[in-house]
Amino acid sequence: EDPFARGTPEPDPIPGVEDVVLVASGKGGVGKSTVAANLACALARRGRRVGIVDADIYGPSVARMMGTGQGLDLDEQGRVIPAHSHAVWSVSVANALPPEAAVVWKGPLVAQAVMQMFREVAWPDLEILLVDLPPGTGDVQLTILEQVPVTGAVIVSTPQRLAAVDAERGIAMFHDLDIPVFGVVENMDAYVCPCCGERQRLFAEGGVELLARRRHVRYLGGIPLDPGAQELADSGRPLVVAAPESEAAKAFDRVAEAV
Ligand code: ADP
């Protein structure tokens, strides 16, 4: 690992944090936040010390999914104390702002707010800090890649062709910037019948696997559509915690094992 490989100096480490892992997607609504929350819980259940930064400033949902409150507590040094739920530490812009605030933010303010979630937080010692990125390849991504030492990225896509095309664009951006891509997660790849357990594909099979092969990244596995996911997300308990025996929870655990 050559610190000069990127041609620019490596950003300062986040104190206490070993690895920063981005959870990214080309499109919104593919389940990136769901994957981030469940992956974090699955890693924590495997004994890893995990945190999440909710950097999806235009649609922050980690606080809701992880069931953390609205408030924001500060320590004596004025640093944010991360919320702690399901054995995972998390920080979200949603905790600091009313829901309507983010949409009117201008670029520099966004960059500043995002960086505060990394550097002005009293993180405990963490092995992995997952980052729920906004969809696409915009300013927030570039700010983070510039200012945070990123270990790698996990890409989330759904099976539809258009989602995979946008996911590929995301992979290309990370590769251009010499950020390792750990692999692609295919969310909502199938429906498992709750009565008989039969697994039905919802869209044509193989697009995301093909994309992974074409870009030389790992296919980390598929997560079935789980009708309970939405309700559980709204109740602040990710599937991995609330329904660990479900097919989707087991699939998330396999991704956690692979990451
Ligand atoms: P993104 O972060 O990519 O915008 P979300 O994680 O917010 O996407 O998910 C979008 C919607 O899809 C949410 O309502 C979520 O509950 C639902 N969802 C995501 N993954 C699954 C799944 N595997 N099964 C069922 N619903 C899911």
TrEMBL record:
The keyword Transit peptide does not apply. One of its GO terms (molecular function) is metal ion binding. ATP binds at residues 26-33. It comes from the Bacteria. Keywords: ATP-binding, Hydrolase, Iron, Iron-sulfur, Metal-binding, Nucleotide-binding. Signal peptide: none annotated. The keyword Oxidoreductase does not apply. GO terms for biological process: iron-sulfur cluster assembly. Binds and transfers iron-sulfur (Fe-S) clusters to target apoproteins. Can hydrolyze ATP. Homodimer. Belongs to the Mrp/NBP35 ATP-binding proteins family. This is Iron-sulfur cluster carrier protein. It comes from Inmirania thermothiophila.
